[in-house]
Write a structure and sequence with these properties.
The complex is a heterodimer.
Chain A lengths: L1 H23 L7 E5 L3 H7 L4 H22 L3 E8 L7 H20 L9 E6 L7 H13 L6 E9 L1 H19 L8 H6 L11 E4 L18 E3 L10 H26 L10
Parallel strand pairs in A: 1-2, 1-5, 2-4, 3-4, 5-6
Helix pairs in contact in A: 2-3, 3-4, 4-5
Chain B lengths: L3 E5 L3 H7 L4 H22 L3 E8 L7 H25 L1 E6 L7 H14 L5 E9 L1 H17 L10 H7 L12 E4 L18 E4 L9 H13 L10
Parallel strand pairs in B: 1-2, 1-5, 2-4, 3-4, 5-6
Classes of the chains: A alpha/beta, B alpha/beta.
Chain lengths: ~280, ~230
């Protein structure tokens, strides 16, 4: 009886969510949302849980948010799971996070309700050599297992910073020039962009950072040049469907302004960016 | 107190429209606001102030508007030069100067030369600037060094790129605080690399209405924030 009620409530809420998605779809839906998952440790502290519990609950929030995004029609989601800067933390916490990451990555392709059902291709970007061997192997497996999926894309940035990505891109540009002896050609925007880790991922339309902090923390600096920034005060484990609705509504409100900017820019080919 | 404050001075045209004034008057009011901000920053001991005066993307605006802005920048530079010298303010201009009118280029060179030894506050004005292009030109300069055998691609690191970015004219290239006025929530291709750890503050006021009170609010917000740089201390 109780299970029956639980199932019914779930089903009603699911229908309700889909109604909201249909209404929102009257306006433009962002193609790519990027998330900085900040606040797991503070959440654990706030609720007097052990530190690791915050990250575990954070993972549940993540799968929930991913489901909402993909159901809404967002094609690309990128998350900042672990920064190169986070290696400054206590060794115990790093070890815990590496193990947690490995556990959750192995879980991803197995999760029947999410990654494979929704046809999501999972990719990892960053200096993967810095990860524990176990985490790295799981990441490679997950990438192989989902390589043929193409309905939606989940990009997970681990051992990542934007400045590291840019250094790597600049190094590759120089290596390529040296190889081709192409010194007469001036380096242009496309040259650099092509060498970025996320070269095949479109720029984020919305960049979300939870826990009220208003900074980019070395995440997607190049790619977020025009992204709409959303900074809810909720800690990451507290993020919900309503935050997604609110951010999309704000995005739609600003869309006219951004579209006009884009149209103007397409007429002016600045700094060697080839127009699509 | 932040050492380096950056500002995206947005909202001049909306301010003018709201008051039924011309676009030109909106920008004149914006210039006045900048003068006030400069004075406040000097008084507060802020060492570097970088302002986004004209984006590389703004070249697509109507010619009348672009021409007016170019002449406003020239006039502003000349009118303020005595003040910069008197107040010990150093001026630098970053951005792609190749598209600027010749006389403005000359005015800028003169102002930079006349103030290069000043040290109380460094005013960096970004004109025809793009954060992405700043990185591209740094990459190009580094590529030239590789060509000349001065370094190998594997030697390239964050420090090298930092030295080639246009903000290399200051010892504090990374803003501690970025303020954007008029309620727009984006960085619009302003400093990108340099904003890695900058605290962002979005003010609702339009730029001509941004005064000392609004600046203090932004600074107060900055002082209340805990900067962890990815490490411990949640």
């Amino acid at each position: 009886m109780v299970l029956g009620i639980g199932w019914t409530i779930n089903h009603i809420f699911s229908l309700f969510r889909r109604c909201i998605y249909v209404i929102l779809s009257v306006g433009p839906i962002p193609n790519h949302i990027a998330f900085i998952l900040d606040g797991n440790r503070r959440y654990a502290k706030k609720h007097k849980l052990r530190e690791g519990a915050g990250h575990n609950i954070g993972f549940l929030s993540l799968t929930s948010m991913l489901q909402c995004c993909y159901e809404l029609g967002v094609k690309h989601v990128t998350i900042y799971a672990f920064s190169i800067d986070n290696f400054k933390r206590r060794p115990e916490e790093i070890r815990y996070l590496m193990d947690l990451m490995q556990e959750k990555i192995e879980f991803l392709p197995k999760e029947e309700n999410l990654v494979n059902r929704l046809g999501i291709r999972v990719q990892f970007f960053g200096n993967l050599k810095l990860l524990s061997e176990g985490a790295r192997d799981s990441a490679q497996s997950a990438m192989s297992a989902t390589a043929t999926n193409s309905k939606a894309f989940l990009s997970i940035c681990v051992a990542y910073t934007s400045t590291h990505e840019i250094v790597h891109a600049v190094e590759q540009v120089c290596k390529e020039k040296k190889q081709r002896k192409a010194w007469n050609e001036h380096v242009n925007l496309d040259d650099v962009e092509r060498q970025m880790y996320l070269a095949n991922i479109p720029e984020p339309d919305i960049l979300v950072r939870t826990s009220g902090a208003n900074r980019l923390s070395n995440f997607l600096l190049w790619q977020s040049a025009y992204a709409h920034l959303y900074s809810p005060s909720a800690l990451w484990p507290e993020i919900s469907f309503w935050h997604l609705i609110w951010m999309v509504l704000n995005y739609q409100r600003n869309y006219g302004y951004l579209e006009k900017q884009q149209q103007n820019m397409d007429h002016v080919n600045v700094f060697g960016r080839s127009n699509p | 107190m932040p050492k380096h404050v950056a500002v995206i001075m947005d909202g001049n045209r909306r301010w003018a429209k709201q008051r039924g004034l011309s676009m030109e008057l909106g920008y004149e009011a914006g210039l006045k606001s900048l003068r006030e901000l400069l004075k406040s920053c000097c008084n507060l001991g802020i060492r570097v102030l970088t302002v986004f005066a004209f984006s590389a993307d703004n070249w697509s605006r109507p010619k009348v508007e672009v021409d007016f802005l170019m002449s406003l920048f020239g006039r502003g530079t000349e009118d303020e030069l005595k003040n910069f010298v008197r107040e010990d303010i150093r001026v630098s201009v970053i951005g792609d100067s190749s598209k600027l009118p010749t006389n403005l280029k000359e005015q800028i060179i003169d102002a930079e030369e006349a103030t290069k030894n000043n040290s109380r506050l460094h005013l960096i004005v970004a004109i025809s600037y793009s954060g992405q292009y700043d990185i591209v030109q740094a990459c190009h300069n580094i590529a030239l060094k590789v060509k000349d055998g001065l370094l190998e691609p594997s030697d390239i690191n964050q420090s090298l790129i930092e030295q080639e970015l246009e903000t290399n004219c200051t010892i504090f290239p990374y803003p501690d605080l970025l303020i954007r006025t008029s309620g727009e929530l984006r960085v619009s291709n302003f400093l990108l690399w340099q904003l890695a750890y900058t605290e962002l503050f979005f003010a609702k006021a339009l730029w001509p209405d941004f005064g000392e009170a609004e600046l203090l609010e932004a600074l107060q917000s900055f002082q209340q924030r805990r900067r962890r740089y990815g490490g411990e201390g949640s």
